[in-house]
Every structure is written in structure tokens, then in C-alpha cells.
Design brief:
Number of strands: 12
Distance between the termini: 45 Å
CATH topology: TIM Barrel
Low-confidence stretches: none
Strand content: 15-25%
CATH superfamily: Aldolase class I
Helix content: 25-40%
Oligomer: single chain
Order of helices and strands: HEEEHEHEEEHEHEHHEHEHHEH
CATH architecture: Alpha-Beta Barrel
Radius of gyration: 21 Å
Strand order of the largest sheet: 1-4-5-8-9-10-11-12
Length: 336
């Protein structure tokens, strides 16, 4: 006797029997419009491969302009740009972060000139520019909150003047979204958006990014340099705290919020989406990229399937979109 004899109508496989019906009843759909392309720019000529991230290179300013045109052609709506700063130009205050003629400003202008239809997002953070590698200013071995915010506001205003569309404060200082929003309004940049790194966790998955941007090594060079970022980035064990962080950033004027890292924190994404009904993004960070690519290059995963499956997980969790180094590859696969 068939195990389904008592329930002859319960055959869920009917809706999986062919590609056309699977597509028709699919609950979440990934498109190129869901992607923000994460890229690193350097102050030099040509592309410089990042050894820990196969397929990713630091791009020149000219390369960023070409990438913006490529994003437009692929239907990718926005690019998130991160700078690689030569060590000789770094100091404890991250002074180059404020340079209106610096690498970030030139990259933003080049991308907006090349493809004005493509949005540009800038990281409001000091760690690419500080010689100690921290996201804030150091005093007596502590990351000081309010002086750091003053520096971040000046950095954000410079980025807005350069033509940046979305400012993304990633420092996790208390009150930075409110200070940045007030400064933008006062300077006449009412249309510049804020996507806050609202729930950014002190994670092991950021390692390859630190190579990509040439970040200063934590905990070395001075007894006053903390060995990690656990006093300002979130504890990986906490979930309720993430909701409090998100609520504060929204109250302070964030237009969109982000969870970082991505795949290990999909539970946080879903809680944020359910609690706030706010445009919520996740960052598929460098370590996530590196793991998938390492497995694929060793023949342990099907690279194309793994890329799309991993990105689809963000949509299933409720993300409006995802920041990812896979954006151009995924967009090509989705358009195939």
C-alpha cells in the first residue's frame, strides 16, 4: 500500500517536476538589481590581484570608471568603493580620509562621470587610513567615540562633495548616524543617503579584506594599539543587541541598514527585516568570498551554483540587496 494512500493530494513534488513550474512558484528571486558591487581602488596603474581573494583585484581609478560602465551594462545598480592606501600616507588620525583630492574622491568622480546612472557608495571609516588599523582615534589604548565621530563627519562631507550617493558609516561608534545626517542637512546634501553598518560584528571573516586594503596590523607597533575591535564591533553571540543597534540608527536618520558579515548572520537579517520593515542589506564579506572561491578552485564546489545559491540565501532571508565581490560574475550568470 502506498504511504500516500490516505493523503492522495499531498504530492509536493508536483511543483518541482519541471524548470518552468519551479520558476513560476519560486518564493524569492535574485536579479542583478539586487547586487551592490564591492570593489577596491588603489592609487596606481593597472589591476593588482588580491592573493587571498582569487578573481578580485585592486583597480586603478581608470579601472573603476571602466567598472562603472560595466556595472551599467550588467544592470548592477550600485558600487561600493573601498580604498587601498599606501602605508607611507597613513597616520594615527587617518588624515588622508579627509583629502578632497585623494583617492576616494577621484574614484567617485571618475565613476560618476563614466556612468552617472550607477550609484556610488562610500565607506565612512578610518581603518584604511590609520597606521594602527582601527576604525577610530586612539587615546591611551582606547578607541574614543566622540572625537572619532568628528573625523568621520568630515570624511563623509568630503565624500558627498565628491559626488557619492550613499554614505555607509561602518565604524560602529555610538551616535555617528545622527551626527552625519545633521551635517549633511546643514551642508545642503539632503539627498545623500545613509546606509548604516547597523549590526556589524567583530568577525573572523574580514581577514582577506584587510589584505585587500592594506590595513594596518592590529595590536602591533605600540602597547596602546588594541589587538582587536571587540570594544566597538558587536559580540558575535548577540542577537537582541543587533535590534537595538538598528533601532538607534534608524532613529538617527539612516535610510537603509546593513548586517555584516552576511551568511553566518542570516538570522540577524531576518529579525531586522521582521522588526523594522526597513530596506535591509547584508555584506557578503571577503572571508565568505574567499571560502567559496577556495572550495571551487579545489573542485569541492560548483563555483557558479555556489555563487548564486549563496546570494539567493540573502533574498530568502528578506534582504533588499547584498553587497558582494561576486556582483559582476553573478550578474552575468543571471543574465545568461
Amino acid at each position: 500500500m502506498s504511504p500516500l494512500a490516505a493523503y492522495p493530494a499531498l504530492r509536493l513534488r508536483r511543483l518541482r517536476q519541471a524548470d518552468w513550474i519551479r520558476r513560476l512558484v519560486r518564493e524569492s528571486v535574485l536579479t542583478p538589481a539586487d547586487l551592490i558591487w564591492s570593489m577596491v581602488v588603489h592609487d596606481g596603474e593597472g589591476d593588482v590581484p588580491v592573493s587571498s581573494m582569487p578573481g578580485v583585484s585592486r583597480l586603478s581609478v581608470k579601472g573603476c570608471a571602466d567598472a562603472a560602465r560595466q556595472a551599467r551594462a550588467l544592470g548592477i545598480p550600485a558600487i561600493a568603493v573601498f580604498p587601498h592606501i599606501d602605508g607611507a600616507g597613513k597616520d594615527a588620525a587617518g588624515s588622508l580620509a579627509l583629502d578632497p583630492d585623494g583617492l576616494v574622491a577621484r574614484a567617485v568622480k571618475a565613476m560618476k562621470d563614466a556612468a552617472p546612472e550607477v550609484g556610488v557608495m562610500c565607506d565612512v571609516a578610518l581603518d584604511p587610513f590609520t597606521d594602527h588599523g582601527h576604525d577610530g582615534l586612539l587615546e591611551g589604548g582606547r578607541i574614543v567615540n566622540d572625537p572619532t565621530i568628528e573625523q568621520l563627519v568630515a570624511q563623509g562631507l568630503m565624500q558627498a562633495e565628491a559626488g557619492c550617493d550613499i554614505l555607509a558609516p561602518s565604524d560602529m561608534m555610538d551616535g555617528r548616524c545622527g551626527a552625519l545626517r545633521q551635517a549633511l542637512e546643514a551642508a545642503g546634501h539632503q539627498d545623500v543617503m545613509i546606509m548604516s553598518y547597523a549590526a556589524k560584528f567583530a568577525s573572523a571573516f574580514y581577514g582577506p579584506y584587510r589584505e585587500a586594503i592594506g590595513s594596518g596590523k592590529l595590536g602591533t607597533g605600540s602597547v596602546d594599539n588594541p589587538p582587536d575591535k571587540k570594544t566597538y564591533q558587536m559580540d558575535a553571540a548577540n542577537s537582541d543587541e543587533a535590534l537595538r543597534e538598528v533601532a538607534l540608527d534608524i532613529a538617527e536618520g539612516a535610510d537603509m541598514v546593513m548586517v555584516k558579515p552576511g551568511m553566518p548572520y542570516l538570522d540577524i537579517v531576518q529579525r531586522v527585516v521582521d522588526a523594522f520593515s526597513m530596506p535591509t542589506f547584508a555584506f557578503q564579506v571577503s572571508g565568505e568570498y574567499a571560502m567559496l572561491m577556495a572550495a571551487a578552485r579545489n573542485g569541492w564546489l560548483d563555483e557558479e551554483r555556489a555563487i548564486l545559491e549563496s546570494l539567493g540565501a540573502f533574498k530568502r532571508a528578506g534582504c533588499a540587496g547584498v553587497i558582494t565581490y561576486f556582483a559582476p560574475t553573478a550578474a552575468r550568470l543571471l543574465g545568461a
